[in-house]
Amino acid sequence: MTAVCPESRHAADISVNSLKSRNAFLTDPECILPEAVYVFVITGPAGSLPDFFVIHGAVMLEKEVDFFGKYGRDYKTKHGRGIP
Predict the structure, then answer these.
(1) What is the reported pTM?
(2) Taking the CA atoms of the chain, what radius of gyration do you get in angstroms?
């Protein structure tokens, strides 16, 4: 998804990932764009309010070890790494 400011015409890439209940979000650190905004949503059961977590790609990359563990990009399975 892309959002554009009507005044400045600045565009920002937005990636939204959702889960129904708390679990790790599978994300590949090699695919993270530093300039993108990432939104992680836990929708929860029907009738409950969702939890939102918003983070800039550059911050995720700066704190890669915190998010993906010490193996990070070297993890052999390429399906993605879990972000708790």
Answers:
(1) 0.78
(2) 14
